[in-house]
Design a protein that fits this description.
Layout (H helix, E strand, L loop, with lengths): L2 H10 L9 E4 L4 E3 L13 E4 L2 H6 L3 E2 L5 H5 L4 H15 L7 H8 L3 H12 L3 H19 L4 H7 L5 H12 L3 H5 L6 E5 L7 H7 L8 E4 L2 E8 L2 E9 L3 E8 L6 H14 L8 H4 L4 H4 L14 H10 L5 H15 L2 E3 L2 E2 L4 H4 L4 H5 L5 H15 L13 H9 L6 H10 L12 H10 L8 H8 L6 H11 L3
Parallel strand pairs: 2-4
Antiparallel strand pairs: 1-2, 1-3, 5-9, 6-7, 7-8, 8-9, 10-11
């Protein structure tokens, strides 16, 4: 990054730049993180360091507000307190009847708790509490034998009307239908009004020769592992609902249908937190979504699948990336039948040799990264499946510590593999082209200008990025 880009990121207080460089203030001899909330110094009083020890050696001491010393040691007291609070809420959502109870339990003021929740989970305390209640109700309905009314109050909902409305909006099913889901080989999800399947079609339909997934017209499929068993999840999108059918080579365990429901929500793009209708009517949102207000970004079925796509897709076009993914799945994925294969797992790729990937036309550097990352996941050095529970900042920091996973890759995984709502994959060529076209800029913008323009869409930059990709980057 140039000095001007570093200054711009510092004045923007861009959290995504934490760890990439350190801000030194010569007038106070203090060093800070780029997103430090303290009043920003004049540019003439700023020097930059790439490593913390360089700031120490130059005679600078750590800021007491943003605590870069704790950041570089993986210590964040506010984040630790927030993580502890979220764990308590997950265990007993009924103990937190409203946001005020969250504030009291957190030890923070309401403004700070909101800031922390938005920074780390990309949701307000109210939306976080709502989603955790629904998750708790799902578990109670299928594993405790409780009625819908009993689950409503056991999960902390204040009324049956609120429970039915919020549960249906989050899951696409009524509580009673969800309770009867275990063991079912087919189920139906209610879709939001005006739902568009373009997001799912773009994800599943990338490669018409894929043995793992596909989408044509209103129907698609995805090969998935459900409760440890290989299966094929068929999807048919209708005007008001989506019909799902699980096709397995053997009798699947009852839990398979619960996992299939979760996969369906990810593929249909029904999990991510979205702006309100009022927000979508404001500029520049109104112009961005005017032709596709109901567009919903599809998520990969697992964070690892998103990571593999991100690594494979670096510096090559999407068509060849899809071809490489197909070849990798055919090499290391478990076969369901003659024409369908599961996505390659980290455990399977950890056993592959670089030469095996080279035969698929995978570059040496890319092959080394795939195998190195797969082995880190297999050894649980990179617990990618559970990273999102600690929040976006912690997940991002963990990802970029592994060689071959840079800021763009980590941001892509947070957005498309974990469903965080306010991600921005700076450096993405399609995003740069799209921002230039959407804002009618005289020349292709650099990362600094992209970040500045996209700031108008915070805290929903993941959705805005998807609209830019789908409608403006071509």
């Amino acid at each position: 990054m140039s000095r001007d880009q570093m200054l711009e990121g510092m004045y923007r207080r861009d959290e995504a730049l934490n760890g990439r460089y350190i801000v030194g203030v010569t007038s106070t001899r203090i060093y800070c993180l780029p997103d430090c909330p303290a009043r920003k110094p004049k540019a003439d009083n700023v020097v930059f360091f790439l490593r913390e020890r360089d700031a120490h050696n130059a005679g600078f001491r750590a800021c007491k507000r943003c605590r870069p010393d704790n950041y570089y040691r993986g210590i964040d007291q506010d984040h630790a307190a927030l993580t502890d609070l979220m764990e308590r809420v997950r265990k007993d959502t009924a103990a937190f009847p409203n946001v005020r109870s969250l504030v009291r339990a957190s030890g923070f003021g309401s403004t700070k708790l909101t800031t922390l929740c938005v920074d780390h989970f990309h949701q307000t305390p109210a939306t976080l509490l709502r989603s955790l209640r629904v998750r708790r109700a799902c578990k109670l309905l299928t594993s405790h034998g409780l009625s819908a009314t009993e689950c409503c109050f056991a999960a902390g909902f204040g009324s049956l009307a609120t429970f039915y409305q919020q549960f249906g909006a989050a899951t696409g099913m009524a509580p009673a239908a969800y309770a009867g889901l275990p063991g079912k080989s087919a189920f139906t999800l209610t879709l939001p009004r005006g739902y568009s399947s373009r997001g799912m079609a773009a994800l599943l339909g990338r490669d018409p020769l894929s043995t793992n997934q596909g989408f044509a017209g209103s129907q698609g499929f995805k090969a998935v592992s459900l409760a440890g068993a290989p299966a094929r999840l068929a999807i048919e999108v209708r005007p008001a609902n989506a019909h799902l059918r699980i096709e397995g080579r053997a009798t699947l365990p009852p839990a398979a249908s619960i996992e299939a429901h979760g996969v369906a929500l990810r593929l249909l793009g029904l999990q991510q937190h979205r702006p309100s209708a009022a927000v979508l009517k404001r500029e520049p949102w109104a112009r961005l979504v005017s032709s596709a207000a109901t567009l919903r970004p599809a998520l990969y079925t697992t964070p690892f699948e998103a990571l593999l796509w991100a690594i494979v897709g670096q510096q090559i076009n999407i068509r060849f990336a899809a071809t490489l993914i197909r070849r990798i799945n055919d090499l290391a994925g478990e076969r369901i039948d003659a024409s369908t294969v599961l996505p390659a797992t980290a455990d399977a790729l950890a056993k592959v040799k670089p030469g095996d990937l080279a035969k698929l036309q995978c570059s040496g550097a890319k092959a080394d990264t795939i195998i190195r990352v797969a082995r880190a996941i297999s050894r649980n050095e990179l617990p990618i499946a559970t990273l999102s529970s600690a929040g976006a900042a912690a997940a991002r920091q963990c990802l970029v510590t592994h060689k071959g996973i840079g800021p763009w890759t980590s941001e892509y995984v947070l957005m498309r593999g974990m469903g965080f709502a306010d991600c921005l994959p700076l450096g993405d060529s399609g995003l740069r082209n799209g921002v230039g076209k959407f804002f009618k800029l005289p020349k292709r913008p650099d990362s600094t200008e992209v970040a500045g323009r996209m700031a108008a869409f915070a805290p929903y930059r993941s959705l805005a990025t998807h609209h830019i990709w789908m409608n403006h980057s071509g």
